Amino acid sequence: MPNNYKKYFKLVLVPGLLFTVSFYLLSPSNGSKQGSRERKLLSKKIQDSISGYPDAAYHIKEDVASRLASNSCVCLTEERTLNMPFSDLLFPRVWASNLQHAFMENHPDPKNVKKHGDEEYESFRKRFYSPADVLIIAEANNPLQYPTQGVEVQPLKTILIPGLSLKQEGKPNYMVHLTATLGTFDVAATVDMVSMEGAGEKHLMLSSPLISALNRQLKFVTYTNTMFHPKTADSILFATEHHESFFTIKVAHRISPKLYSSGYEREYNISSLVTIATKTFLRYDKLKDLIDSIRQFYPNVTIVVADDNEHPQPVTGPHIEHYIMPFGKGWFAGRNLAVSQVTTKYVLWVDDDFIFTSNTKLEKMVEILEKTTLDLVGGAVREVTGYTATYRHTISVEEGGPDGDCLHMRIGHHHVIEGYPDCVVVDAVINFFMGRTDKVRQVGFDPRLSRAAHLEFFVDGLGTLHIGSCSDIVINHASKIILPWSKTESQKAYDHFRYSSIGVDKNLHNEIYYFKNRFKCMTSQ
Question: What is the CATH architecture of 135-252?
Fold first, then answer.
């Protein structure tokens, strides 16, 4: 008898669950609130995109139009459609969080923090803006009209292709076709008197006896990316009889801004904007002098020290972070570690034997980075002899064929920075520079370069970093003039590590330039 009850229970339960699943999946109320809002936004987007040819009637294809971006993101939680045990496990709902409300409701000054965020975002947009991203439509002259640049779709998303048109007259029938390689075409609406072949495929053909109908149909043509890649482009063929043109659709994720909340005071708060980073090895006496000089002018700025000594000594004090590395790990590895711990908008790199003076004006470095599109700005280093070096270089790469390219380094600069007569645009600067933390991390420092390296960072940053150099922002260099018989054991050990492996490092530099960067030769001043 119990077994019969079990069989009866299964017969009732299984169909019941299947009915529940079907009801949930097919229910028209599921997501109806968000769907209604999306339809309104999409309808407005389509209306804004199809001005012209009012006499050609059209009919929206909702399955295609619903995939178009509405340019007005909405975060709505899906309503619960079923109240039953484990419904959230069986049918996970979309959840939403209002980040703006959650952050602002507990902030003591929401108005000013919003203003500060807007200013930061505008600065970010200026730095990442490129004229190559602006939408430009080539007016028909062959007789095809199409976008020459500025069309972009996110991976696996759908867009309306702007600007497509055919300028022809006096033909019994008009025809165009489009061909893609990384996506498919469709239409967000169908227009009367237009024939279509290839909807949802890589090749789409449209034809009509009425040029006005065909041109209105072209305003509804969509492109859907079907092959995921975070950043690439599809080359689109757009053709008619005896004429063809090509244009590109960029496939890329939107760049997420990296903004730093560093306060919104009128004057630059260096302590909240800048972290000073350095790497030390067998020179604790020099490091102490550096820290003492920093504290004379910037008592509250955080100092990050990367240390790969065999027997580390404590480096303590307010706003000092001391990170111990494996023994002899090296110069660029230490740079990576120090920069990785920075939480401020800017990082200032200094060697451990530098000395701050009244001319070491971090405020000016911050001002230049805040008011220009530069990513990094270097200063000058004054030696005990009185000589001041900026180490300004320009770098270029010349295409060299199958064996590799040619790297050219020259002493000099590109041009003066407007509004700052003592500052110029360059491609490489001296070992005293301030940079946007996220951009410095983006380039990074090759950790294989352990004893001697500098220009390699700027070669890796070519095309990524926008760099300036200012001769009136000066830091002093501790004296390197030490008589041989007066050297300490630490100084002797430092010289051994620093200079005994020059031949090995030279071979490594050659390998990095030749293999990693694919340079077959290098010229330099």
Answer: Sandwich (2.60)
